[in-house]
UniProtKB/TrEMBL annotation:
GO terms for molecular function: DNA binding; DNA-binding transcription factor activity. Keywords: DNA-binding, Transcription, Transcription regulation. Residues 12-66 form the HTH cro/C1-type domain. The keyword Zinc does not apply. The keyword Lipid biosynthesis does not apply. SUPFAM superfamilies: lambda repressor-like DNA-binding domains. Belongs to the short-chain fatty acyl-CoA assimilation regulator (ScfR) family. This is Propionyl-CoA carboxylase regulator. Pfam families: HTH_3, Peptidase_M78, ScfRs. The gene is pccR. InterPro entries: Cro/C1-type_HTH, HTH_RamB, IrrE_HExxH, Lambda_DNA-bd_dom_sf, ScfR_C, TransReg_Diox_bact_type. SMART domains: HTH_XRE. One of its GO terms (cellular component) is cytosol. It comes from Sulfitobacter pontiacus.
Length: 466
């Protein structure tokens, strides 16, 4: 297999700018010529081994950050944006999109935000009768999408919040559980915890200082909700500082993000980084073992595995996704090259959709994306009952996976033939940007291909992809 060349011009420029170095000064510290540095920063040349070593020794840089997934994320997001019918007839070659993402990531993000604004405007026009005369009837990013993108481009890892949660978990005394530590922390903040027969998982009454937690919820869920309250009352300054840094466009986005940060803290405290990473490696990422050891749910464990991207101590780069029964993605994150559709559902050939048919079982799948990258994917249904008769049951399916080169570190890869090409299912991201010509599950034509309609032929699809 050919060695992939590393182009990281944007990362080099970002580092040099943060150091307030001129190109001449930066080139001298890297031990390269000024023209050579200029070519690397403009992605005309790949980053050499000499430069990689210099970045590590001279600046203490985690060189794995040079090949982070930002470029792949931007390429995937831009291609999906370009699949909008508004761009019909103006198809950009993939090479141009890749060039924009690697050379001008700021411009690429601005383009994506502009399209989001366009979509918001179209949606508002569809409800014009409600919008007329309202002061807030102006195009703006959806708060939910804005927060989703914040976590997406932070690689779903927030160092300050993660370390604060890990420090909190260390306060657990000898023989004392994290649950007891959490109850003590809430008590010291003047909060009394009451376990009630209620549908709401968590409800805090600031006037009385009582935190009501559902007695019907599992132990893992109860502890998680109490930790979330700890984040809100004891880590408020940290959360607010992180929100100030993010500079959200609306109060609604900031409020949603704050709850997201509190949830992040709860998960990181329930599964402290160093201890969780070590145990995950020793049990070969067995989700049930980890759930038992840390008193967490399968979904919480899978989500936590996808956040183990601490510089200098990274875990396996996983993707994590949750879908509902309609196939709509409700949670998504990828530290791998695999990216998910920003709008709509996931590829129907992916095993996450089959998980609903086999409740309580783990489904394994070897899959290959159109770019030739191969993955191992694990899927399972997740039911969330309310705990009483007649209450609606929320059903989701989750998927966790990584590139197949990490298969030896996964217990779920045992017995799978990862060397046989035919064992890999051909999956995609979105039909609009999937280049597969003969997919029997295609719902819409690919954007960058010409269609041929033969009136004398009716195959699986009513057209052929040229």
């Amino acid at each position: 297999m050919a060695i992939q060349k590393l182009y990281a011009g944007a990362k080099l420029r970002e580092l040099r700018t943060n150091l307030a170095h001129t190109q001449k000064e930066f080139a001298a510290r890297l031990g390269v010529s000024l023209p050579y540095l200029n070519q690397m920063e403009n992605n005309n040349r790949p980053v050499s081994t000499t430069v990689v070593l210099a970045l590590a020794s001279e600046f203490g840089m985690d060189v794995t950050e040079l090949s982070s997934g930002d470029s792949e994320r931007l390429v995937s997001d831009m291609r999906e944006v370009l699949s909008d019918p508004v761009f019909e007839g103006d198809v950009l070659p993939l090479a141009d999109v890749q060039l924009a993402a690697s050379n001008a990531p700021g411009l690429a993000r601005a383009f994506i935000k502009l399209h989001q604004s366009h979509r918001q405007t179209q949606e508002r026009l569809a409800y014009l009768d409600e919008a007329l005369g309202r002061e807030d009837a102006r195009p703006s990013p959806s708060p939910w999408e804005e927060v989703r993108d914040f976590f997406h481009y932070c690689d779903n890892y927030l160092d300050a919040v993660d370390r604060a949660a890990e420090y909190f978990a260390r306060d657990t005394g000898t023989g004392q559980s994290l649950r007891d530590t959490t109850l003590e922390a809430l008590s010291s903040a003047g909060i009394t915890v009451a376990f009630d027969e209620t549908d709401a998982l968590r409800r805090y009454d600031p006037a009385s200082g009582v935190l009501h937690v559902s007695a019907r919820a599992s132990q893992a869920t109860q502890t998680f909700q109490m930790l979330l309250q700890v984040a809100l009352v004891r880590q408020n300054d940290l959360l607010e500082a992180t929100l100030d840094f993010a500079r959200f466009n609306s109060p609604a986005a900031r409020d949603i993000a704050k709850m997201g940060l509190a949830n992040y803290f709860a998960g990181a405290a329930l599964m402290p980084y160093a201890r969780f990473l070590e145990r995950a490696q020793s049990c070969r990422h067995d989700l049930e073992v980890l759930a038992s050891d840390f008193g967490a749910s399968i979904e919480q464990v899978a989500h936590r595995l996808s956040t183990l991207q601490r510089p200098g101590s990274k875990g396996i780069p996983f993707f994590f996704v949750r879908v509902d029964q309609a196939g709509t993605i409700t949670k998504r994150h990828s530290a791998t090259r695999l990216q998910f559709a920003r709008f709509g559902g996931a590829c129907p050939l992916w095993n996450v959709h089959s998980a609903f048919e086999t409740p309580g079982r783990f489904l394994r799948q070897l899959a290959e994306t159109p770019d030739g990258v191969r993955y191992i994917s694990l899927a399972r249904d997740i039911s969330k009952p309310a705990g009483r008769f007649g209450a609606p049951v929320r059903r989701y399916a989750i998927s966790l996976g990584c590139e197949v080169r990490h298969a030896p570190a996964l217990v779920y890869a045992d017995g799978m033939d990862t060397t046989r090409a035919s064992a890999f299912e051909p999956i995609g991201i979105s039909c609009r940007i999937c280049e597969r010509k003969h997919c029997h599950q295609r719902s819409v034509p690919p954007l960058e291909r010409q269609l041929v309609v033969d009136p004398n032929l009716r195959d699986v699809l009513p057209y052929q992809v040229d």
